[in-house]
Amino acid sequence: MSYYATNAVYKLLEAHRNEQFIWASGTAWILLYADNTAHVRAVAFVSGHSMGSTDSQIVDRLKAAETTANLLAEIAQLPFAVIQFDNRAASIDRVELNGNSIELSALRDWFSKVGLPVNAGATQKPINSAESSAYHNWQRNNLGSIKVSDVDLIRIDAGAKSVAELVELKRSFDPLEKWKPYPQDFDNFNVVANLANRIGAKFTIAYNQRVSKTEIGDDASRLSLFSYSKSNGPQILGVVTFDQFVKGAYLS
User: Fold this and answer.
1) To the nearest 10°, the Cα dihedral for 236, 240, 245, 249?
2) CB crowding 171-197: b at 16 or more within 10 Å, else e
């Protein structure tokens, strides 16, 4: 199994060195753990140990992602966890939780203590072919009664020390004007949207078109933007250039 370590949106943001956007990629994720009603109970920054040997620019970005994940939890008054695992292993029996090595059963106990209805049953959601880690496989098989969503991109207001927007990135081969969010993704959208509402941030779905099947085979020069709420579903905001997206005029 393999997963995408980056995409065209991340690449353009890296090139512009725009510090208002924060994200985790590769073998690192900002994860929202929610109950069956999509009510977020905990925020976690999860990463593989191999991320520690990468270049300084990526290290700095991931540190910023961890700090911002913690900020999300603080604003929402939710428990926060830093979880590290051996992403090179086919199976794992231990992880590091907030710097302490623990067995996986203790990690499941931690999720239970923060109010998540964990059980040993497997979730019904199919395994995403873009995911690959022993931790994700364990999570899928042992935390099946909860909902887990990753946050793709965060726009921060550094001056106010607040989060302005949570962005869900989507891409496929469909033209920008024809693509619409898929209903099967709405459960995950509900989790992110609920957290956005809780912290007073916007939630936006940003779609860009793939042009080839290579790892970075997508074009982010233009994006189709949608707002989303559980009650109203996705609402088209329009097609914008990448620069217009960065400026965020649609947020006002």
Assistant:
1) -70
2) beeeeeeebebeeeeeebbbbbbbbbe
Largest CA distance in the chain: 49
User: pLDDT by residue (tens digit) across 215-232?
Assistant: 667 899 999 999 999 999
Distance CA 47, CA 40 (A): 20
Question: What pTM, to 2 d.p., does this model score?
Answer: 0.90
The answer to whether residue 129 scores a pLDDT higher than 50 is no
Residue pair 117/82 in contact (Cβ under 8 Å)? The answer is no
Contact 145, 37 (CB under 8 A): no
Separation of alpha carbons 53 and 183, rounded Å:
39
For tokens 């239970």, name the residue. 112
Strand order through the sheet with 162-172:
21-22, 153-157, 162-172, 202-210, 218-229, 233-241
The answer to whether 174 touches 182, Cβ cutoff 8 Å, is no
Which tops the pLDDT comparison, 214 or 76? Answer: 76
**Interior angle at CA 205, CA 201 and CA 210, nearest 5:** 150
Say which DSSP state 209 is in. Answer: E
Instruction: Supply 205's token pair.
Output: 């779905």
80 vs 61: CA distance, rounded Å = 19
- The DSSP element (H or E) to which 235 belongs, if any, is strand 233-241
**Cα 38 to Cα 247: distance, rounded to the nearest angstrom:** 30
Q: 28 is written with which tokens?
A: 């690192």
Angstrom CA distances, 98 to 44, 45, 75, 175, stand at 10, 10, 19, 43
Residue 21, φ and ψ in degrees, nearest 5: -110, 135
